[in-house]
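tool_call: predict_structure(chain=1)
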Amino acid sequence: PAPSGNEGNVTIPEFSCLLQMDPQLKVYEKDFRRRYELLQKKLFQLEEAEGGFDQFTRSYKTFGVHRQPDNSLVFKEWAPAAEALFLTGDFNGWDKFSHRYTKKEFGKWELILPPKHDKSPAVDHNTKLKVVVHTKEGERLYRISPWAKYVTREEKSVIYDWVHWDPPHPYIQIHPRPKKPTSLRTYEAHVGIASPEAKVASYTNFKTNVLPRIKDLGYNCIQLMAIMEHAYYASFGYQITSFFAASSRYGTPDELKQLIDVAHSMGIVVLLDVVHSHASMNTEDGLNQFDGSDSCFFHSPPRGEHSLWGSRLFNYSSWEVMRFLLSNLRWWMEEYRLDGFRFDGVTSMLYHHHGIGSGFSGDYSEYFGLQVDEDSLVYLMLANHILHTLYPDCITVAEDVSGMPALCRGVEEGGLGFDYRLAMAIPDKWIQILKELKDEDWSIGDIVYTLTNRRYGEKCIAYAESHDQALVGDKTLAFWLMDKEMYTNMSTMTPMTAVVDRGMQLHKMIRLLTHSLGGEGYLNFIGNEFGHPEWLDFPREGNNQSYHYARRQFNLVDTDNLRYCQLYAFDRDMNRTEDKYGWLAAPPAFVSAKHEEDKVIVFDRAHVLFIFNFHPSKSFQDYRVAVEVPGKYKIKLDSDEALYGGHGRLDHNTEFFSEAQPFNGRSNSMQVNISTITLLVRFLCLTSRNISEN
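tool_result:
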């Protein structure tokens, strides 16, 4: 429907559902209506001007370079500030003036190259190209097409080259996309560091050596970082230079397609860490100043620059920027058959202040009003609307630290349309506890609050640590817990030291408590499942270009006489237990006990009873715990099992029978032993017979 132009008239079809969940949002109805109206207006304009969003988001089929049925090549660019455009490359002996683009309307440029005499295309597969931009000031600039599908860098060079990618026999993916998982267990991974060797690892290495591990561990989703091409490796993939190019440092586009295809054959979905929040400052091999102006894809400075990240910020209100970014999402879905995206830097997009120097208190006024950048907010609504309309099983995840209400509610309710948000407060809480508090000073109430403090009806992905926590200047949770003892005391041949004992047990408990209480999805960063030591640091000037910390030492987990395989086994069985009982897909847990003195947490979720004892020195006999479902209970997962580096003090044949004695807000209760421990902590996961015999 055409927008009315009158702000009060537009109705959000399911706004009442949102208000039912959170009546406090009623005050901001005008803001929700305005946002929704801006979205409808964009959809209407797309219909009028481009024949709808389906056509519009396939612009990667017309921009950049395309081979026609007769093998002629069509080149097309948007460079509004340019005076003239030329194409040069291996095909014309790098002649800078022989092939001139024709100027079209709206700042577009086009060039058609007829086929050679033998009817083959004028530009060969795997040869280099450049766009030559003549500016109004008389400068001549060398640029890579923003739509380039493949760029490479020669060993001695700093600058990336645009390489024409049109293989004679492209890889065809054969496996269908898996069904969207109800419980999302995500393995966050970086292809380049995914081997123990001191080098950049490949797509093929990941496919052959890492995918089987991920499958074995019970993860059903992979979140791939640093795939969109980035000239600076140490940017961890967050300073993008070529948005349509899969990074060539790990291999070819076809090898990435094969990796995704094999993941699909294992029933694993693959999400791309997509960076639409900002772009690299690079000009020669990036988007910056593509047409010689300081705007083009971006706002002019200062609005178009991020003061902390040293990068450029997109002008989301621009028609051609919208075409570029939405087509970029479509390209990754269509060309590589991905299953969705984790949107990076959403907080920076949502607010004019980019989240800089603003600690969000949770007061609703922070999420509405002039500080909100409605251009980018509406861009995100539009992206989610289009993705979920075209691909109903598509998964989108927002990296937002602000807690924007309705971020993960449907667009038809007035929300932004994401499926999940990352629960970013949880890892911060664990690091803070381990850095600042003695074991006996842990606040059980504070831990439970952090893990359960989330907006009802908006799904969260909980994690104890991600790539952020492992970066140089910080370290992995395992290293916070055990530090230098990881170098000397991880052998199973020698008795556990007190430090390693405490570290091993807490590593398991922190993960499981986060997994079971913290969200509707779970995330682990590659290697941390087995307690990867140290931290992450990419080769750069400051470390003499060393790869020592830019790798994952899978050799540690493959060595039987080291304790890493025990942590690995626990992570695997934790995921497999979730797969069986489905607590991530269940409503939030009912916490029946958070006992400060005993340091005990008890809750039930998905008919599974969880008991954690965080007391550094005390065990409990005949400890009464609350249960809702009456019946017989058995131990299903026990972090004290010897297999997981525990002490094996609980008898798994024991059966626990509930009594009709109400306790802590539950109808029934029973008595359990929380093992005899010295300087140890215990987690117990009990499941009810009424739900499952086995």
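agent: Confidence is low (pLDDT under 50) at residues 1-7, 676-682, 689-694. Proceeding to next step.
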